[in-house]
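Work package 3, deliverable 3.1, input record:
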Amino acid sequence: MKPDAPSPRTQIRRKPQRGHYDFATVAAIVDAAQICQIAFNEGGSVHCLPTASWRVGDHLYIHGASNSRLTRTLTGSDCSVCIAHLDGLVLARSAFHHSMNFRSVVIYGRFVAVDDPEEKKKALAAFVEHVSPGRSALVRAPTPAELAGTCVLRLPLDEAAAKIRHWGVEDDAGDLGIAVWAGVVPLHTAAGALLPDEDCAAFTEPALPDLVVLRA
Amino acid sequence: MKPDAPSPRTQIRRKPQRGHYDFATVAAIVDAAQICQIAFNEGGSVHCLPTASWRVGDHLYIHGASNSRLTRTLTGSDCSVCIAHLDGLVLARSAFHHSMNFRSVVIYGRFVAVDDPEEKKKALAAFVEHVSPGRSALVRAPTPAELAGTCVLRLPLDEAAAKIRHWGVEDDAGDLGIAVWAGVVPLHTAAGALLPDEDCAAFTEPALPDLVVLRA
């Protein structure tokens, strides 16, 4: 049995059979992302901005410059964070039944600043590990000035809803004879040839799987 | 010389050298997207929801069910639409200088419903063409009931700002001797093996480039 929505505003009303509210599903969608989009109000306008994100435990983390608008504003009022992965194009025999396969999550709540320097260091190391496992031990750690200039914020994942479509075409029975290819074109993120920094020529090019996790 | 921001709320204050306000740049980023994220206020909360999008001329288009919350709410107040393409992971020699290459656009304004049936039909055909050029002539066109149940909304692209990073590592000079690979891992969207609908076995599998445009 599916767990219930944690709040009225996370209740999926449109196609509720696509909704999921369990932590494992929400966390997996957050983990598959390198970036999220944040909706918030500031200066009389609603804004939607993209930023890098990662997860530690039951929180989504973001970072920014300590003096930036985003980091100042987000600790002062509720926001909504969205992550959406496009997994496939669903090509139907009618224009109407074209669709997309996707995994999305919407999280509501208020960010809290991670002020403790040790906790901030750990969160930023987890960010590097999210992109490139094992790398945080190989690169220069942040200086005190870099740490002071960086704001780390975290948002609990407990008020969240996921929505997933991951199946094939749903054509009307009367359309099945239409002479056009129908099905799903699965999509994923792929890497191109590595572009080493010019001062990096002395190094053997690492194998891609040892360098980064290709997230959806 | 770069054009100026069209409004105070589109003025990029953080790393302004990455900002672009010309229509061609904004349109190209919109065209490279299959989905956008929309920030809006409703019921005392700010929301961030993903939806499919496409461009016709100087407007971004979305669609939804005529009776959905999103379509009702968006014509009643201003929103912010964000599209972000992650183009690469920038791996530096210090944790601090890690970055991402991306193209993003943020658009402000209010959606207007496309009520004229002929205009709505054209907009929906353009949506199919956006995903799969040539396909709108091959599939069954929307019935009057399908058209009535579908709401098409458009948002002008004139209050928009793009932000782009598309270059290599920017390490501190003192870090260049650190023994770790540094550079950019370029990312793009790729398609997996086609998943034909079961009733589609009689058709020759089309070549991918003839079927869909792989957008970033």
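DSSP finds five helices and twelve strands in chain A.
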